[in-house]
Amino acid sequence: MTSRREFFAAAAAGIACQNRLRAAKTASSEFPYAEFEARVARRDFRGMTKDVLPTPCMLVDLDLFEKNVKTMADNCKTTGINVRPHVKVHKSVDVAKRQIAEGAIGLTCATIAEAELMSGAGIKHVLWTKQPASMNNISRAVALSKRDPTFMFVVDDPQVTDWVEEAAAAKNTRLKIGVSVFAGMTRQGIENGQPAVDLAQRITKSKRMSFEGFMAYSGGAAHTKTWAARRKKSSDDLAGVRETVDLARKAGLPVNFVSGGSTGTYNIDKDNGLTELEAGSYVFMDTNYFAVGGKQNDALYTDFDGALTVLTTVDSKRHPNQVTTDYGNKALTRPTDQVKGMPWLKVGSQGAEYGTLSWTDAGRDLKLGERVEIYCTTLDMSTAVYDRYYVTRGDQLVDVWPIMGRGGAAQR
What we know:
- Helix content is 33%, strand content 20%.
- By secondary structure, the chain is an alpha/beta fold.
- It is built from 13 helices and 17 strands.
- The chain folds into two domains: 120 residues, D-serine dehydratase-like domain (Lyase, Ornithine Decarboxylase, Chain A, domain 1); 228 residues, Alanine racemase (TIM Barrel).
């Protein structure tokens, strides 16, 4: 027979268990996970909050994202420089369309696959920033030019102009071409001055190509720390470009654009001769950019907010001052990542699917099953290993944007 004391003890234990379960519940704890993908497919996000999401995953704070896009758009309208955002950062048609809606004149792409994706989505004035030097890329660039006459790409070598002209003639297609010129980075770009002008004139004389302008990406300036040093670096890198543009105009060549720039130099490069910006990171931001400093603050770049985080879960807690997470090497964890709202935590890795969060501050702790948001180090790399952005307002899921341009070699 159960004693009175045993009865009350069991009852108290039952109540405590119910209370723990009730406390663990969230707004969407009753959400049937078996329906998750079906609900996402039909864009039914009612009752879906962050706690039902698989981890690791990418979160976009919609309010901060929209603020960042508007900040860039407003700056460009005020200063009189165009923005042609680079999609290598987000690889998303949904993001690109929102940039266009805020006044972007087109898009910049790093691969022909990105250009095909964005053009295929109905976005005009796409600029591909690499010259096609293989049969595959040449044929695809010519085909895209035929489908979309607003598409442009760059060259930096007379040999490539001969190849693409021959391919364009075979397909009865006209091409819009920019000349890529050296701007401090030794990865591409013909020498400034007469060599660049000669190449532009060669294009102008072609029956199949029209010269549109110059591209000059000063990538070294983008992450130069402190605004003053970044301003000088940008000016120095673009000095030869300004000379080239002057020579081209004196030679009677049309220069419809001088493209380049970055998130780090968005409020600098109008003074250095650029007519449009290829900035990309401003939509989300990462810890690399946080560290470069802004015009008003040398230590921290605050012009744009951190709108993207990686959501991770505390999976195990067996050692002092450390927990294991599911944000590992495959999810591109980096020791330079930062935890949102928890600066006392240090990000680390223990393997392909295992990450760590550690701390030294006394009295700090994390709970098993706790969700933590992390700012990634390099957007270009991190977004390439995820399939979608989960778009949120507060804890509520409001949209899902596919990361469509992250395909591997076969899709590039």
